[in-house]
Amino acid sequence: MKYPASELVLDSKGNVYHLGISPENIAPTILLVGDQDRVALISSFFDKITHQSKHREFVCHTGTYKGKQITALSTGIGTDNIDIVINELDALVNIDLTNRQDKKTTTSLNLIRIGTCGILQADIPVHSYLLSTHAIGIDNVAHFYPIEFNTQEKSIAKLLDTFVGFPEEITPYCSESSPSLLKILEGPQTYSGITVTSSGFYAPQGRSLRLGTRTQDINEKLEQFEVDQHRVINFEMESSALFSLGKAMGHQCVTICLGIANRPLMEFSKGYEQEMNDLIKYVLDRV
């Protein structure tokens, strides 16, 4: 199949349209961060930097850390941005951009999201490392793709939907992360469990300001949910699209977050610059 210009959109230099990069600009292991400034923070640990670019909110630095090639790439906030990032990263390694055709062999990337999140369990302290075994999507990105979820994923999504009682317009989906990357990142200081990915920061996460929310008690219900010894540990805004789209395309995906707010205890970090530095070093030393 040859992809037309309107579907596989490239810029005047032949780079993927939104990220503004070409295949030689990325490494097989990519650390994804929401914050543009966090890219330079990651690359400050590199032995050397071989590529730097910025296009829109997408900042990309590639280099080596202890001899291994690593890319740090900012995504911006939300699953809509993850949709762009995953599709364009996949195109970089699995589509011949000159001929606009699929390559004969496929490449699997290691995609590791380093983010921040709200903690949903009172026993998990602020500044803990939260490692996502699964992501529940209460966004709609994966519903646009012909993705085959496995039996466990379908079961978890259905059980959670029934337990929480989401508005009828919301259909949760569930996607698991990469077992191999989970094993690499697990440690004594990590808390593993289910992440809930919302389509927004305020009402979709149960916050009520002037407009109110239809999910008033969502946090309390999520705190109580448990299935197959998995409990819901945090709220964030990217992992459901990362896991579902990435896995469907054959990539290895995982998320590790620094918990900066404990929602049950109504606590928020007073500053987490050093803690984020420590988390980045933790990930780099393991990948």
Describe it.
The chain is 26% helix and 30% strand. With 287 residues, the protein is α/β, with parallel strands linked by helices. The mean pLDDT is 96.
Report how far apart the termini are. Answer: 35 Å
Order the strands across the largest sheet as they lie in space. Answer: 7-12-10-8-13
Helix fraction by DSSP (H/I, runs of at least 4) = 25-40%
> Which fold name corresponds to the CATH topology?
Rossmann fold
How would a textbook summarize the main sheet?
5 strands, mixed, barrel
Note the overall shape.
globular
The CATH architecture name reads: 3-Layer(aba) Sandwich
**Helix-strand string:** EHEEEHEEEEHEHEHEEHEEH
- Please report which band the strand proportion falls in: under 5%, 5-15%, 15-25%, 25-35%, 35-45% or over 45%: 25-35%
The CATH H-level homologous superfamily = Nucleoside phosphorylase domain
| Class inferred from helices and paired strands | alpha/beta
Total domain units: 1
Question: Which properties best describe this structure?
Answer:
alpha/beta; Nucleoside_phosphorylase_d; 7 helices; two-stranded antiparallel sheet; 14 strands; 287 residues; 5-stranded mixed β-barrel; Nucleoside_phosphorylase_sf; Rossmann fold
What's the topology here?
Blueprint: E1 29-33, H1 37-43, E2 48-55, E3 58-65, E4 68-74, H2 79-94, E5 95-96, E6 101-102, E7 110-119, E8 129-137, H3 151-164, E9 173-176, H4 179-185, E10 190-197, H5 218-224, E11 226-227, E12 230-236, H6 239-248, E13 252-262, E14 267-268, H7 273-286
